[in-house]
Amino acid sequence: MIKTHCNSNQLTRRQFSLRAGASALITAGVLPPTLPGSTRQELPAPRPDPDALLRHLRLKTAAPLDEMKRFYADGLGFPIEQEQDDQITFVAGTTQLTFERTERKNKGNPFYHVAFNIPENKHDASVQWLIRQEINIHRVRHFQHWNAHAVFFLDPANNLLEFIARHDLPNAASGSFAPVRDALCASEIAFIVDNDREFGKLICEATGLPRFRGAVFPGTDHGILLVFNKGRLWHRPAATFPITVDIAVKRNAVFESADYPFAIHMG
């Protein structure tokens, strides 16, 4: 079992803690008993997304790496790709996720938003799995304009994580939910800036990616480079911290921001 802290004062009518339970989510109408795309026909086993955009995320953390290891490896079941004294790398489907230790007194307390695509028919199962594992749920949300359902939760470093089921992807899968096989890839990383429109346009041009469904940031259902303004209210006001990401695009180049500690490796 793994537990994370969730500030109950931040929960709204659509934000639920562990004790809300799956039945309360369904009763509230946030978690429908049957989601779009649900089917009783025989389905394939889940498999990592070969078209994933985000191939390697490198993030900073002030949390002890042994706590991150317990959460991601022992809790979520993500395999460990590499482990050193100052960093650890996990595998989430097609994506490698590296946390590099940084001292809080020098670099602040880094936190990020990272989403993981899951099979489009397993949103309700993912919520119930988090409840059984005693991981406090920060929020459950239906993104109508994205045709997706998502559940948000926190890791020991206060990173805002998300399991998102995108119903336009034909990736429905069989079996009970387990992140080790149902986290198909990391599909979102959020860049926090002063001007989201300006920076979103900049990385659209640099990467050659289309704007995602009319938003200011680039991507597809297989992966999105989110861009938000500083202070955006998540579980705490969003702030800028170093991000290095490898993405799968046709261009072979490196984008490094002159104003922010961001690097995007393309290829």
Please give the structural blueprint.
Blueprint: H1 21-27, E1 54-61, H2 65-75, E2 80-83, E3 87-92, E4 95-101, H3 104-107, E5 113-118, H4 123-132, E6 137-143, E7 148-154, E8 160-166, H5 179-182, E9 185-193, H6 196-207, E10 219-220, E11 223-229, E12 243-247, E13 254-256, E14 262-266
Parallel strand pairs: 1-4, 5-8, 9-11, 12-14
Antiparallel strand pairs: 1-12, 2-3, 3-4, 5-9, 6-7, 7-8, 10-11, 13-14
Approximate strand percentage: 25-35%
Q: Low-confidence parts, pLDDT < 50 over ≥5 residues? A: 1-40
Biggest sheet details = 7 strands, mixed
Radius of gyration from the alpha-carbon trace, in angstroms = 18 Å
Class by SSE composition = alpha/beta
- What is the 3D form? globular
Kindly state the mean pLDDT as a whole number?
87
**What is the helical fraction, as a range of percent?**
10-25%
Q: What order do the strands of the largest sheet run in, or round the barrel if closed? A: 2-3-4-1-12-14-13
Please report the number of helical segments. 6
- Total strands: 14
